[in-house]
User: Which sequence fits this backbone?
């Protein structure tokens, strides 16, 4: 027996069995206790509750929702809200980050100082504090009757009212897809090897592609337009309330602004790092070939920097996606808030925690997959990143 | 005959400025734009925060509301709530002293003289112990104050310090387990680490605060505060474990092989050869993790703790100071900024110092 324990192989196997076994036992014990406790409260485990109606409502949804809808529909709404907020935040943060990052790498001392001050201030204040701050600012805006007006938008304590086109929902979605295509098409046309043409002609084809997609969007809008109404629906005061336009609730705008500003300061640093990683020799070589400064930037500096920053940027995007869970602090019904509300109302704790984990795993994995794909597609052959 | 020595003219100040900021038309434009933005922001900020601001509580909230600038009297009136929460008024000096002990402990652990395993453990043990005794009382003639009355900055610091204190050893354990030669142990640990890393902190805090009581036997549940600290320590350790593992990968394999050849045991190899070098490699990333973790401490407000953000919300949310939210948030942001900025500057300094010493 003792000699058996001295055997390295036996001991290793035993150790592993002990480790995994005790972990599994702990988890199992927790689940058993939880099930017993829940059963005492009259809650049966299982996923049947997903098809019961919730009895409560959400304050923000891109899809139709009311208290009679089942739980699974609400989870879907939560995921879509999270993705919508996350994507809005990502895009805004990337815009802010690129501007500030470029300022930080500029040759102008004052612009550098300005960029650095921005990063130092907003990176060092917790995101949730910034969320609270913007939420307080927006909810302290004047009431609809005394609303601030700018470019047809109305700023009020009940939210931001923006004009929307008087177009049917399906047509609007189709037009949006066409606009996205107009942006994506030139990029794709620029990359596909099938169009192996000289530089000038390729850019003509790219322009034509974008124009065609935009024309498509315009046609869809014209066809889907609601009859007898002006093309744009402006919000306006009617009685004590605002009519028309689209309302962006304060919860959403506070979160989007905070994520844009905070995330922007992180992305600025990533952008700066990316530009710093481009070797000086690359730029000098490009300049000595007689390229103009603008072309050096667009053809040499930017593409190389983009490749250097993409992996880090992917991590930052995943982080920002997870940061949307702060919605619960101001009452934005993102995926996590729906989860918390469901636990409160239905008591199906274990199942809902499982759904929460699965949801975030799916979001993380799909983001990672997308970025791996992009990374692989644009990776340079050989060692061209070296200075 | 007198000699007149004429030095070559030094570039005048004006010329220097011209070269630096107005070399080309584009540069000049950029400089002008930046200068305008900066001047505008600085002027507006100064006007709001200093020139038109009200500092005294003499006039009460009404005088404040009439002023065009900031209303710092809300801070003068409510700073005790923001810093100490609901801690009993007469005992608040203890809360202040506890905060000081944490700050002193952090400063001490930034000094290279304390960078051995034993000394750093001693400093952190003593600092946290002192904090705990001061806050909780019940001994040395200090009246007892339960955890439910802790709040404000003091609670924020407590959660941060205990998170690190629990999370750091746990991180080293996780890193060692993940590095293990036994495939099942390293794979299971990897699964735990990656699983925790893929979840948002808020969901972990929520699970530990609200869901865990269902899944634990009565005697294991403990106070909600300690469960939340455990959750945030778990989150911290999942990230820190990867940093430590990265540091270990930077230690050349020959080091461990040499130690093995000398007949050192596993613990001797890890404790005396691998970990000291790994921690050195991982130091900048570790400081960065501390910075992130300090900022994320603020998330406990969501599971219902009265830390500095919640006490700030309470400071302006009730009664007559309802309009003064910007000042309260600015005050809290300033406190966070001081802590986080100095820590991250220290990290940057350390990184520079290390990259110099490696040359």
Assistant:
């Amino acid at each position: 027996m003792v000699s058996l324990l001295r055997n390295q192989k036996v001991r290793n196997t035993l150790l592993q069995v002990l480790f995994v076994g005790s972990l599994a036992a702990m988890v199992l014990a927790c689940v058993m206790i939880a099930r017993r406790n829940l059963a005492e409260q009259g809650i049966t485990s299982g996923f049947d509750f997903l098809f019961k109606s919730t009895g409560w409502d959400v304050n923000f949804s891109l899809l139709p929702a009311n208290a009679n809808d089942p739980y699974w529909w609400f989870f879907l709404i939560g995921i879509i809200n999270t993705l919508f907020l996350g994507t809005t935040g990502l895009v805004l943060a990337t815009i802010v980050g690129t501007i500030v990052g470029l300022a930080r790498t500029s040759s102008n001392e004052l612009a550098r100082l300005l960029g650095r001050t921005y990063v130092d201030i907003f990176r060092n204040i917790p995101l949730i504090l910034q969320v609270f701050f913007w939420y307080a600012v927006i909810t302290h805006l004047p009431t609809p009757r005394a609303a601030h007006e700018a470019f047809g938008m109305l700023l009020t304590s009940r939210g931001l009212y923006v004009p929307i086109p008087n177009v049917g929902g399906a047509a609007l979605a189709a037009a949006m897809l066409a606009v996205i295509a107009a942006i994506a098409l030139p990029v794709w046309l620029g990359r596909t090897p099938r169009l192996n043409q000289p530089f000038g002609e390729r850019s003509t084809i790219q322009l034509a592609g974008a124009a065609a997609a935009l024309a498509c969007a315009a046609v869809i809008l014209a066809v889907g337009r609601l009859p007898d109404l002006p093309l744009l629906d402006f919000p306006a005061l009617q009685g004590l309330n605002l009519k028309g336009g689209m309302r962006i609730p304060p919860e959403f705008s506070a979160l989007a602004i905070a994520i844009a500003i905070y995330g922007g300061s992180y992305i600025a640093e990533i952008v700066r790092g990316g530009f710093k990683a481009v070797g000086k020799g690359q730029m000098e070589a490009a300049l000595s070939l007689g390229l103009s400064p603008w072309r050096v930037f667009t053809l040499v500096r930017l593409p190389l920097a983009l490749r250097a920053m993409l992996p880090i940027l992917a991590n930052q995007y995943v982080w920002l996606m997870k940061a949307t869970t702060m919605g619960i602090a101001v009452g934005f019904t993102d995926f996590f808030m729906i989860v918390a509300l469901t636990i409160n109302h239905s008591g199906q704790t274990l199942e809902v925690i499982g759904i929460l984990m699965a949801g975030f795993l799916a979001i993380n994995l799909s983001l990672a997959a997308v970025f791996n794909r992009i990374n692989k597609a644009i990776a340079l052959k050989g060692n061209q990143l070296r200075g | 005959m007198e000699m007149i020595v004429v030095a070559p003219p030094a570039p005048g100040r004006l010329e220097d400025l011209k070269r630096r900021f107005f070399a080309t038309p584009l540069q000049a434009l950029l400089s002008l734009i930046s200068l305008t933005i900066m001047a505008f922001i600085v002027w507006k900020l100064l006007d709001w925060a200093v020139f038109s601001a009200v500092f005294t509580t003499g006039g009460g909230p009404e005088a404040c509301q009439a002023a065009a600038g900031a209303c710092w009297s809300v801070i003068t009136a409510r700073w005790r709530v923001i810093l100490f929460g609901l801690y009993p008024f007469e005992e608040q000096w203890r809360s202040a002293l506890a905060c000081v002990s944490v700050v002193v402990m952090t400063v001490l652990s930034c000094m290279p003289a304390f960078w051995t395993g034993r000394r750093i453990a001693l400093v952190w043990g003593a600092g946290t112990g002192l904090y705990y005794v001061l806050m909780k009382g019940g001994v040395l003639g200090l009246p007892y104050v339960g955890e439910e009355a802790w709040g404000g900055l003091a609670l924020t610091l407590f959660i941060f310090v205990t998170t690190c204190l629990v999370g750091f050893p746990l991180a080293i354990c996780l890193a060692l387990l993940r590095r293990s030669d036994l495939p099942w142990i390293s794979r299971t640990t990897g699964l735990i680490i990656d699983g925790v890393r893929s979840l948002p902190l808020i969901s972990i805090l929520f699970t530990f605060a609200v869901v865990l009581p269902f899944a634990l036997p009565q005697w294991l549940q403990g106070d909600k505060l300690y469960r939340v600290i455990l959750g945030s320590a778990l989150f911290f350790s999942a990230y820190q474990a990867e940093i430590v593992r990265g540091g270990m990968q930077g230690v050349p394999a020959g080091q461990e092989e040499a130690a093995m050849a000398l007949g050192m045991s596993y613990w001797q190899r890890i404790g005396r050869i691998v970990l000291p070098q790994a921690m050195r490699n991982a130091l900048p990333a570790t400081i960065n993790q501390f910075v992130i973790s300090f900022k994320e401490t603020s998330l406990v407000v969501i599971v219902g703790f009265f830390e500095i953000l919640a006490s700030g919300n309470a400071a302006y949310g009730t009664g007559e100071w309802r309009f003064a939210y910007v000042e309260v948030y600015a005050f809290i942001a300033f406190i966070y900024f001081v802590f986080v900025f100095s820590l991250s500057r220290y990290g940057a300094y350390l990184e520079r110092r290390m990259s110099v010493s490696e040359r």
